[in-house]
Specification:
heterodimer, A: 429 residues, D-Maltodextrin-Binding Protein, domain 2, 2 domains, 10-stranded mixed beta sheet, two-stranded antiparallel sheet, 16 helices, B: 290 residues, mainly alpha, MetI-like fold, 13 helices, 2 strands, 1% strand
Amino acid sequence: MKKKSTLILAGLLCVCFLAACQPSSLSSGKKAAEGGKDQQQMVIAISEQQEEFYRKAVSKYSKLHPEIEVKIEIVPYIDNTPTEKTEKNKKAVQDMQMQIMAGKGPDVFLLDESNEALPDMIKSSCNGVFLDLNTVMDGLKDLPLNQTVLKAGEIDGKQYFLPLGYMLTGIAVTDDMLGDWKPASDQPAQFLEEAANQTGVEKFPSEFLLRDYIPGLFGTPVLDYEEKSITFSKELQNLTELLTERQEFSSEEVPELPNVALMGHYAVNSFETFVQNSLTSGIDVTFLPFPNGEGGINAQVNMFAAVRANSACASQAGEFLAFLLSDEMQGSTGWENLNIKRIPTALPVNDNAFVPAYQRRFDSGEEYQKAAAEKAEELFQLTQQITTARFCQYENSLVFDTIFMTSENSSVEKKLDDLKNELRFYFDE
Amino acid sequence: MKDGRHLLERRKKLAGMWLAAPVLLGTFLFFLLPFAICIRYSFTFGVGGAYFAGLENYKDVFSSRAFQLAAANTLRFLAVGVASNLALSFSLALAIKKGLTGSRFFRCLLLLPLVLPIASVVMVIQVFFAEAGILNNWLSSLGIPIAQWLDGPNAFYVLLGLYLWKSFGYSVILLLSGLNVIPEEFYQTAAMEGAGSLQKFVSITLPMMIPHLFLAAVMGVVNAFKSYREAFLLGGKHPHDSIYMIQHFLNNNFENLNYQRLSVAAIMLLLVLLILLCGLYVFQNRYREE
């Protein structure tokens, strides 16, 4: 009797074990049979700050593809203020992470640099979280996309995530400040000092903006996944020390230009704002991008998409991403009918869409349309000089938190050494 | 009559099974089933274990420097900590049994570490052992070079000390209860036969204490694993190499959503613990039989 009951229990255990060993149910692929319709459901996770634009884009896509039911989940923005809302948002993000690792959760991720769901996208890609988009999107390399920026989403020859937009950091100057001068420095710290000397200022009022993007200015990554090494270069250290030493300026005391500016970003100090003002004032502004330390310019991807590796809607997700990459959705023509208050600010990765998008952004009236078009074309030529593109969100946040969000009084070199020590098992964990 | 007794026994067994069923169900749902999923994850790759990876995850983990360090540190901590704990607590238990002066006071003091909140204790440790802490101030006032207590190899000994301080009292109480159970007549008879102290210890005390020593060893192992809490509070997610334990490896992989590596490490930990505890159990049984 004892043996029989033991055998029965063991049998039950095996059955349950085998049941647990089923491939994770691809819940998002379930067919919702409502009133005879045969619809597949695709779940899309959207960063809270991009919600308005993507909701409209999804709505437009759904009209074109009624056979797919699209459900949206918002990835909340976490600002770390000690409030109940922040705790609730953190819990929501944790739940999403658990779902993803259990093989469920959203099929498509449309995220930006505030992404907290999967902050280390490259590591997540190496852990098999995302799908190689080349398997669901044909001819990515043949599309009119900025191929250098597209490569930012490539790991080990596989396109794990798709850059949808990017940004550049630089210095905005007027033409008379520039004169015949051409920057000679190829390192960001030296460039910053050289530009300040040339334009006759001690410091730029909005230099503090650079603190959030220090590693992203460089073409060489801090975290090298191929070599499995962590390197804080001397040049990075120099730039960090320079920014640490400098104090913030009050913008009431100093003129607007020259100043540090971000192109393709929603910050107050975006270059696009300076250009809009310059169109009406008639004083032309020029964008001098920071050098990347390798003789070129580095683009930082700040809007991107990815597809969960075991999604049942992989091919539909691929079609949706192709829709987001279209001239219409990347440029302004598609935005006109979307009726949105806040248009995307990232530089479009679709080269065909760049000039129309920027013409719309520089919309200061009919009399300035020609000037706006010329300026957009000028900036487009600048983007063709990009030599490296990286996804830098994680590195940027590591350096920013270590150097500027700590009360320690030690030197920048010591802080970076401590950070390197803290990350010594990064590739092993 | 025989049938009646048989029926009564069956009813008792059935009643026992029903009473144990909730616990068994809970054990199955919250331990065995997740462990089965864990085993599956260890042989797969990708979200939800989408792709079969064979032994790749095991190769990956075994070749990982972090895992090797964590495993070595944990085994070292277990070996040194548990052995020291047993030796010290057994010595004190014997001394208390022999009527050490102030032993009543000691018995109260021994349980004090168990009631103190660990976060407060760790804060005191940090103040004491920090680079500019109390201990280094004393050392420098005596002209002795200061040491890195928490950020250097000495962190292992600080953690070991903390573990011994916390577990020592409980082990003493456990072993003392075992010593009190040994009949005095055994010692008296041995004394009459001409046995010396050492002979009495080896022939009477040790064999009678084997089950209690086994229990103290098991509790020592459990408490050694709980020392991760102190190590985490002292050194964070990535403390000095000397106190980077297997739990750090598990916790960090969990936070990085690398469930495959986490599963492999957890299975290895279980296997090592099973071997250790089964080995102790077999040794205990054999020694008792002899």
